[in-house]
Amino acid sequence: MQPLEGVRVLDLSHVLAGPYCTMVLGDMGAEVIKVEQYPEGDLIRQMAPFQSGMSYGFSVINRNKQGIRLDLTTEEGQEVFYRLAKTADVIVENYRPGVTKKLGIDYETIKEKNPDIIYCSISGFGQTGPYKHKAGLDIMAQGMSGIMSMTGESNGRPVKVGVPVHDIGAGITALYHILFAYIYKLKHHEGQYIDVSLVDSALAWTVWEAAAYFGKGEIPVPSGSRHRRIAPYQAYKTQSGFILLGIVNERMWERFCHHVVERPQWQNDPRFATGNDRIENVEELEKEIEAVLTTQPSDVWLKRLEKQGVPCGPILNYEETLHNEQTQHREMVIDYDHPEVGLMKTLGFPAKMSKSPAEFRLPAPMLGQHTDHILEELDYSKAEIERLKHKAIV
Amino acid sequence: MQPLEGVRVLDLSHVLAGPYCTMVLGDMGAEVIKVEQYPEGDLIRQMAPFQSGMSYGFSVINRNKQGIRLDLTTEEGQEVFYRLAKTADVIVENYRPGVTKKLGIDYETIKEKNPDIIYCSISGFGQTGPYKHKAGLDIMAQGMSGIMSMTGESNGRPVKVGVPVHDIGAGITALYHILFAYIYKLKHHEGQYIDVSLVDSALAWTVWEAAAYFGKGEIPVPSGSRHRRIAPYQAYKTQSGFILLGIVNERMWERFCHHVVERPQWQNDPRFATGNDRIENVEELEKEIEAVLTTQPSDVWLKRLEKQGVPCGPILNYEETLHNEQTQHREMVIDYDHPEVGLMKTLGFPAKMSKSPAEFRLPAPMLGQHTDHILEELDYSKAEIERLKHKAIV
């Protein structure tokens, strides 16, 4: 049995934040029905690369979902949605604030039809406040949260995180608040509304930066790969590329000086003697360390560092990551056969649960794949379904 | 009523991933008891800046927790922990794999004393596999997940994300799996073990990159602030700094050319006519756009872009972020009076729930602050407590 077996989720969302959230609900057993706008459905279905007409991106974040296609801009489409909403426990949407009201599928409207619904909205800046109507894509959230201002090289151009962290971060924030609301509903038999924003979700991750700002007014700046409080804790150049070092205490620093780089004199060098000294002279420290590390390739150093118990690691490219022996051992890549598309791959699950693990049950739906099935279950007759199809409602 | 009222969580963790997870459980009503190792407690207590002796960083991620100090390396300390564990629903730890077994507080041991416990371990690489014993700090996870290899400037040095995203990401992954396990326990009256790793949690975010690699073997490289599939979608230089643009469809591109930069000819320019053209000529596009944008300060462009409904935004530094009117409206900064430390601030909550919102109930504990209270509740007599203190167990 999975934790969310018997929980029905309507996924009104598109692209990334909402679909990521509902995918994880599906991974844990929820019956997720993706409701896609007639005619094209989720924008992501247009995103390359494709396999047999299926967007690979769509397939990766829409596993464990069924799909219905519906024209929500028509009254009859809305009626179908209302009948569906009466059977649901959770609704997730990530339209721009105001759109669900225009479509007649906002929380207030749905609550009248299903008073115990858990309804979660995800948007760039939230449903309230002076910025609520602004378009909040992932990159704007990186800019607004301050995180872009502290990522990259000092004096370089702005740099964004290589993956859309705030779309996914907001999706996960929505996810765990839906679980809180579901637990509350199990105990108190009441639904509620949840308002999640990309920027709020991002801000909630700036805990060290908040502490440094609240405590001493420090405004963080980009520092390349360097930690702002600890050194050496960054990427260093070797003969063959870069490696990562994370020396977080004096014991490790001693072992590093004596047994890795064989520069015991650094331990008493006034520039590097204490953690504070090393942070103050972090540029010189980098030069000195790289002068040694560039004499040998990365592998040699990583072996020596590991032998001394000094935290270290490689910088893998994404192909190396996916083929890495630990990635394979942790089953982070799943192979499956999509009945319409053929052999495909998707990502594995981020945690291993002993009793109720995540499961891959359903491949991503083709556009409108389960429309008939879902309408029949809502007691639409075959004739009614034909009529809705003829009118281009479904 | 909060969703987790009556749920007791033991927080054996330190620094960031585990404490972040248990903080959010506390925000939602759980009774979190932070168990800190005698004598110094959580390493983060040593991290500057300080206010009246309290580490500001510690205070930000340990609100809504009580604290007990305990020497877990002694048999008597373990006995105290076992008594406490019998009263708990959830245990969270982020020691290196193997350490809890040495301390006699691993899942197998605790399960014998409390069969329904939910026990969550967080580590760099997971509890299984060839890398399980490696030190997995946030920076190593950024290196192993491939995310560092796709962040920064092409041909630049490696760049890490400005906040420790994978520590926090693993904390949140632990959090939502604990909620899954708790829902499972509410329904089936059984606990379980959860194994979370920083690298697995990070990999689960690489959904677009997985799709591009699985679908056509693409290995993502650093692209500064640029999107890999959409242009213009990046930071552009203006007369006064940088702004962000995210033009995700042709309608927006048209409005941008005609009404923002007033270069209608770009729409039919073979270099920029379609989305694919713009991605292929993204360098030239940047030059052309910046030649126009550097003629006016950011404010002028942002106003014009907003008027045209073209997604855009500033890049705020962290101080500007915290003082921004939307941040204030969303109550993302909380002021409170710590009884031992004085007036302090902390971050607000990332989602707004209509029925069971997160609450700030307790400031972060001083080291060992609730030791007596918790021991008394476990039926230790005053004499026994004195004896444990005398022996430096608590």
Question: What is the structure about, briefly put?
Answer:
The structure is a homodimer of 394-residue chains. Chain A is an alpha/beta fold.
Draw up the topology in text:
The structure is a homodimer of 394-residue chains.
Chain A: E1 8-11, H1 17-27, E2 31-37, E3 50-51, E4 54-55, H2 56-61, E5 65-70, H3 75-85, E6 90-93, H4 99-102, H5 107-113, E7 118-123, H6 138-144, H7 165-188, E8 192-197, H8 198-203, H9 207-216, E9 233-237, E10 242-246, H10 250-260, H11 275-280, H12 282-293, H13 298-307, E11 312-314, H14 318-323, H15 325-329, E12 333-338, E13 342-347, E14 351-353, H16 371-377, H17 382-390
Helix pairs in contact in A: 1-7
What brief labels describe this structure?
six-stranded parallel beta sheet; 17 helices; 2 domains; 394 residues; homodimer; transferase (chains A, B); three-stranded antiparallel beta sheet; alpha/beta; 14 strands; elongated; Rossmann fold; formyl-coa transferase, domain 3
Q: How many β-strand stretches of chain A?
A: 14
Q: Major sheet of chain A: size, sense and barrel closure?
A: 6 strands, parallel
The level-1 CATH class of the largest domain in chain A? Alpha Beta
- Overall geometric form of chain A: elongated
Give average pLDDT of chain A, whole number: 97
Strand order, biggest sheet of chain A?
Answer: 5-2-1-6-7-8
How many helices of chain A? 17
Structural class of chain A: alpha/beta
Protein name (chains A, B): Crotonobetainyl-CoA:carnitine CoA-transferase CaiB
Pfam families (chains A, B): CoA_transf_3
Keywords (chains A, B): Transferase
Organism (chains A, B): Alteribacillus persepolensis
